[in-house]
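thread: overnight batch results

M.L. [08:02]
morning all. the overnight job finished for the chain we discussed friday. pasting input first so we're all looking at the same thing
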Amino acid sequence: MTPVEKRTITRRATGRQWLHWLYCFFGAAGVLMGGVIVFVLTVDPYQIYHRYLPVLGGKPRYDLRIQRFLVPGLARTSDYQVALVGTSMLQNIPNSAVQRLCRMKAVNLCISGASIHEEARTLALALKHTGTKTVIATLDYNSLSGGSVNQVIGIHEPFPEYLYDGGLLDKLNYLLSWDSIQTSYHAIHGETGPWETENADWPWKFPSTMKFEASNAVRDIDPSNINKNFGMTNLKLDQMEKAFGDSIFPVVQDARGVKIHFVLAPYSILVWHDYAQRGQIQTYFAFKKWLVEQGQRFGNFDVVDFQDRADIITNLSLYADIYHSNESIDEEMVGAACEGKQVLNSSNIEARDQGLLDLIHKTNPAEIIAKALGK
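M.L. [08:03]
and the structure it wrote out:
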């Protein structure tokens, strides 16, 4: 055998060895990936494919830090006719309370600090769910601060678009990610942490550190610059209308047979004094008027307004901060939506806005804060 023939045989043998190695590598990788997919699918920690964890002895975990990951699964696999959608303004209420008030099974799909884009994506899932009859959605002005697609200014939590999409390939990030593996293992063997609960009835309950009392609500607030510690941004009317229209109109235009209520939560009177200091009141009044007009145009959503409720917004003992009121107010908002009360329309909007404006003019933020602090 010549040297050339020997080298040719050697190269062929080496090539066959490499092919064998590649077959083994890809085979092992396929088995490993398949095992990971089966494990995550079986546990399904975000409840994308089935509710709770019927296999392996796990329990559902609700973690306030990863609401954006858990909400799409709840929207798909929960048994409900009423869905709460939006921001933290409606997250602090048990599903059983909503069921009592609306006489239908409910699920809470709220996300703290949700942008209008995130709210629209959640709303779309709720409307696709078989059996949905009513959606109660918060509408916070600050949720429009990111425009049509961006998150709220100041929020930097990842938003997993792939979990809100419908395709199987979109879920590969979920089925093969290290986070999903860790979360699945934690659901079976881990201890419940301080930010977690296994209470499926009240998954997004505010933490115990949020104290609903007047002195707590006004802590560290400068009456001459109320927004200093909050950093809320000024908004323009055309930008607000565009953000809402781009996000919500495509979702609601075909949502026939489902009643949608957009709820304007009762921010405390100090928030309105902040708006006065920043010259935002008339902008928000104009946006409300535009929103009512859009509800009349579409015919399948209305606006439930709690912003002029003087008995609530001047009672700072109901608040943990100047924005967030306690669960009793959440119940009032849900009850009003389901009973058709507090609805804003073209015949009452001017008078209600004027009443709120009068309340702002005859109160003083320094006196409000001093009283709340017991001075």
